[in-house]
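DM from R.C. (forwarded with permission)

"hey, sorry to bug you on a friday — could you get me a structure for this? deadline for the figure draft is monday and I only need the backbone to look sensible"
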Amino acid sequence: MDHRAGKPVNRFNASSDLTLKEYGVYKFRKTIELNAKPASFFVHVSADNRYKPFVNGKHVSQGPARGDLYFWNFETVDIAPYLNAGSNTVAAVVWNEGRSNRNPKSLT
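My reply, with the result:
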């Protein structure tokens, strides 16, 4: 889908999705298994518009890393201090402020 046609492009599944312009709060979670606690474990974090990543329930960063489809910014975070040998949960809360850049009353 051509970005010049006025439709947003979701680069992760290469389809146009008009709901990307609406306000929303999204939660992501992934469990990973590690044989040993790593000395370093770098991840690149970004979201549209705001994000808070967590590892094993601990807040590790936050931002916006503002950008656009052509110049997308990200933050590099070493999450090794928050990881353990065995099962680890990596999670994030992401806010899309949408067209109106307002918070719904239910979240204030």
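R.C.: lifesaver. The two ends are 36 Å apart (CA to CA).
me: no worries. The beta strands are 9-10, 15-16, 24-34, 42-45, 50-55, 58-59, 75-78, 86-96.
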